[in-house]
Specification:
With about 375 residues, the chain is an alpha/beta fold. It folds into 2 domains: about 110 residues, Aspartate Aminotransferase, domain 1 (Alpha-Beta Complex), CATH 3.90.1150.10; about 240 residues, Type I PLP-dependent aspartate aminotransferase-like (Major domain) (Aspartate Aminotransferase, domain 2, 3-Layer(aba) Sandwich). The protein has 15 helices and 12 strands. Strands 2-8-7-6-5-3-4 form a 7-stranded mixed beta sheet, sandwiched between helices. A 3-stranded antiparallel beta sheet has the order 9-12-11, with helices on one face. The protein is globular. The relative contact order is 0.17. Bound molecules: pyridoxal-5'-phosphate (PLP). The site of pyridoxal-5'-phosphate has 13 residues, from helix 5.
Amino acid sequence: MNHLKDQFLLDPEVAYLNHGSYGACPRPVFEAYQKFQHELEQEPATLLYREFSRRMQEARTGLSLFLNCESDQIAFVRNVTYGLNMVAQSLKINEGDTVLATEHEYGAVDRMWETICNERGAHLVRVKMPLPLESACSAVDLLKAKIDPSVKFVTFPHISPETSQLFPIHELTKIARSAGAVSVIDGAHAPGQVPVDLKEIGADFYVGNCHKWMLSPKGAGFVYASREHEDGIRPPAISWGNISEGNSSLLLENDWQGTIDISSILAVQDAIDFLNKNRWFETVVPRSRQLISEFNETILEVTGMDDLYLHADLQPPQMRSYLLPEGDHSSLHTDLFHRFKVEVPVFLNPKGNMFRISVQAYNDGSDLERLVNALKEML
Ligand SMILES: Cc1ncc(COP(=O)(O)O)c(C=O)c1O
């Protein structure tokens, strides 16, 4: 019996293998979130005025300990889409500059870079990284080969969204640094799935979500900026700041975003406590990895397609993507859900049609068995 399954609010009838898309919040964290919402409605001026600065500072401190950085180096934002826009729109991207990205970006993020580059007369170069990659080093070599003097910005996902590759971000960040380029990491899927040590990574910007793998309620993401860049960052919605104790523009212009519900941000500490209490990285994450590896060969047999991984270093512990055979898969996602109650995302990716499984604390072998049986019938 999987005791953690009861801790989640997910419909027990569904084999929910899609944690990666929107996360899922466990009961104790959701209850804390609702408690903060009550508190807000009961006496709005306490939470949003008298105690605002202290409570946000406490929330930032808790998250900074989890991510190993200073508490004034992170600003809370509602999600990675917003946070990356905040960074990219603040950067001094000029005519003729190159922004080096990968062909593994999240769709909205790719569009964001493309739009900004077009507006500023800059070039967006998407480094080709064919799958399966031979090794983590080959991702590094492919990026390195595209560095030239016009490259002023380098961006990549920590874990790619559709192709589920765990990129060697320490090395990629080093390459950006030695080329004199600013590094921007999309960490939407990393915190809570892999340990994230921001000091060690050494990126200029790292933008992440708490509401995916850290299990916080939805609406909690963060932007980290290095000391060198903390003053060059501005939110898309400029508000009057000077509320927080920090003195960089990262904080002064971000902490107070007007009248909003900050309950999901306040509940981030409860999410961290939940992860720690359940010894997440020692028990849940390895168990998820093990479950995926137990079913991997069977899933590959059913699809009849090549594995997207040759090297264990490139596999995130709780997500894996699989190529689909030739054919029309436009209704696969809906059919899997309506006919089999299996929730997995299907992507019509330029590298081939594929689907992605996410395995989380609430899953067990029966969810993957249901997926396998459904795929047998559908393919
Ligand atoms: C790699 C990546 N970046 C950014 C995002 C956007 O995250 P959010 O919807 O929380 O803004 C996602 C969403 O799944 C993602 O996978």
